[in-house]
Structures are given as C-alpha cells and as structure tokens.
Amino acid sequence: MATKIRLARHGHKDYAYYHIVVADSRAPRDGKFIERIGSYNPNTNPATVDLNFERALYWVNVGAQPTDTVRNILSREGVMLMKHLQGGVKKGAFDEVTAQKRFDAWKAEKDAKLGKISAEELQKVQKLAKERLAAEVEANKQKAAELAKKRQEALEAEAAAAAEAAQADAPAAEEAPAAE
C-alpha cells in the first residue's frame, strides 16, 4: 500500500483550511485516512501550521511520500531536516547529539528570523494605524470646520431674515397710527 502525506480540505467556500493526513494514495482527497498528523490554515498571516512533529517524522521515515505542498510545510517545520540528520547518524557521519545540536541551532535561527519579521510587521501595522488615525483626525477637523461655517451662515441668514421681518413690521406699525 502506497501511503501519502497530503492535505484534506475542510472549511467552507472561500475559507478553506486543511488537515494534514496520512492516507492510502488511492483514497479520495477528503475521504478515508490512516492518521491525522496536523492542520494547516493559509487564511492567517502568516499561515498557521499545527503539526505533530514526532508522528510526521515517523511517517516520513517509514516511506510515506508527502505531496509538494506538504513537503514544503514539513520542510518549514524541520521534519525533512531531521530526517536528513537521522540519515547522517545511520551512516555514521556524526552522532545523535551532534544531529540534535544542528537541529536546535537551525530552529533557533528560524525562530529569530520569524521574531524579527513579526516585530517588523507589527511596527508597520502600528505605523499604518497611526497614519490612519492622523488622517481621520484631520478629516474630522475639516468636517467640523465646514459644519461650523454652515451653522454660522445659517445663523446669519436667520438673523438677516429676522431683521428684514422686523423692518417690514416697523413701517406697518408706523402706518397704522397715521391711518387712524
């Protein structure tokens, strides 16, 4: 039986997430599988991967073939590197302790890069939020100034109308006693 490590689609339209499964290569994409070893959500930034490292390494070591996308995911998580290092241990190129040190050094370097990238991304987001806030405050000031101007014009028009009405009433009052 040829086994594959592949993605099984879940979620709804326009919001897919995937289970990383080990399945017979003849089974349908979302059908029967042997074991679920993780999940992959490409909708988050960065994409979220939850992987059972030990089980993924086991299945790769016993010959399960990952699909291209899953191979990339396993490489990013370090499963393929650990398989490579274990191969070096089997050949006698170095011992298990050296292999673990190399893997830990790679993982620390990767985490440092991701931390730096996420810090930069956070700074960009904060800067963009500050710029949006400043633009919104400026727009609100302009709107408030325009509104105040319109209110002033309305008050002036109302005062002018009241003055005209008072002037119109004043001659009528003066004419009324003359007519008596």
Overall, the morphology is elongated
CATH homologous group name of the domain at 3-78: Ribosomal protein S16
Number of helices: 4
Classify the helix fraction into a percent range: 55-70%
**Structural class category:** alpha+beta
What Rg, in angstroms, do the CA atoms define? Answer: 36 Å
Q: What ranges have pLDDT less than 50 throughout 5 or more consecutive residues?
A: none
Major sheet: order of its strands? 4-3-2-1-5
- Please give the CATH architecture of the domain at 3-78: 2-Layer Sandwich
Q: Which percent band covers the strand fraction?
A: 15-25%
Main β-sheet: number of strands, strand sense, barrel status?
5 strands, mixed
CATH C-level category of the domain at 3-78: Alpha Beta
Which terms would index this structure?
4 helices; 180 residues; elongated; 64% helix; alpha+beta; S16 Ribosomal Protein, Chain: A
Give a verbal description of the structure.
The chain has 180 residues and is α+β, with helices and mostly antiparallel strands. It has a domain at 3-78: Ribosomal protein S16 (S16 Ribosomal Protein, Chain: A, 2-Layer Sandwich). Helix content is 64%, strand content 18%. It has four helices and five strands, in the order ββββαβααα. The protein has a five-stranded mixed sheet with strand order 4-3-2-1-5. The protein is elongated and about 115 Å long.
Q: How are the elements arranged and paired?
A:
Blueprint: E1 3-12, E2 15-24, E3 35-41, E4 48-51, H1 53-61, E5 65-66, H2 68-77, H3 79-91, H4 96-179
Parallel strand pairs: 1-5
Antiparallel strand pairs: 1-2, 2-3, 3-4
Helix pairs in contact: 1-3, 3-4
